[in-house]
């Protein structure tokens, strides 16, 4: 009797492992299909740069395919084509994993433009950094534990600090509360 129960338990565990392996195989096939579709799109965009600038994208594609296409366009420098793709993904799936990734990558796109890749100069660069900050804040409202978004928001704040008070005049109490640390302070990380 004991041997039969051990065999039954072993069979059940084997079936569970087989089910997990089958599920992973199906997901792998789906991911490979997405990768093939994205690779074909990138090759087509490099062969026909006018299509890449227009951001040709079918709304019938899976969201992961459109996200990967937008990332590829962004990396190739086709910001005008990548931005609308990211925006459409954010509108369609605001709190899904794809929507959060699109929000983060759109913030990165704006930050890259604001850092100095924008030919229009400093005024547009500040506007792009402000757009990046807005995207990172939106992402942090959805996923407060996203440390990459926190880091990039901090980087954007270093590039374009925000005013503390609306009046522009510093608060007297705030001026008196400022403390300068000793240069040899041991409590700094």
TrEMBL record:
Entry keyword annotation includes Cell cycle: no
Which keywords does the record carry? Signal
| This protein's record includes keyword RNA-binding | no
Which residue ranges does the record annotate as region Disordered?
164-189
Q: Where is the signal peptide?
A: 1-21
Where does the source fall among the domains of life? Bacteria
SUPFAM superfamilies from the UniProt entry: TPR-like
Bias-annotated ranges (Basic and acidic residues): 171-189
UniProt cross-references to InterPro entries, sorted A to Z: TPR-like_helical_dom_sf
Identification of the protein by name? Tetratricopeptide repeat protein
């Amino acid at each position: 009797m004991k041997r039969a129960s051990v065999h039954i338990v072993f069979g059940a565990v084997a079936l569970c492992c087989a089910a997990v392996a089958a599920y992973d195989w199906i997901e792998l096939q789906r991911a490979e299909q997405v990768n093939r579709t994205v690779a074909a799109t990138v090759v087509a965009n490099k062969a026909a740069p006018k299509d890449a600038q227009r951001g040709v994208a079918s709304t019938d594609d899976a969201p992961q395919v459109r996200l990967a296409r937008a990332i590829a366009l962004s990396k190739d420098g086709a910001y005008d084509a990548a931005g609308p793709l990211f925006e459409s993904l954010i509108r369609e799936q605001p709190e899904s994993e794809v929507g959060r990734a699109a929000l983060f990558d759109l913030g990165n796109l704006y930050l890259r433009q604001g850092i100095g890749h924008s030919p229009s100069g400093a005024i547009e660069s500040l506007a792009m950094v402000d757009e990046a900050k807005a995207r990172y804040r939106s992402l942090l409202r959805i996923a407060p534990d996203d440390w990459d978004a926190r880091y990039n928001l901090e980087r954007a704040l270093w590039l374009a600090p925000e005013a503390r008070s609306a009046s522009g005049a510093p608060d007297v109490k705030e001026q008196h509360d400022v403390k300068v640390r000793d240069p040899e302070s041991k409590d700094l990380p």
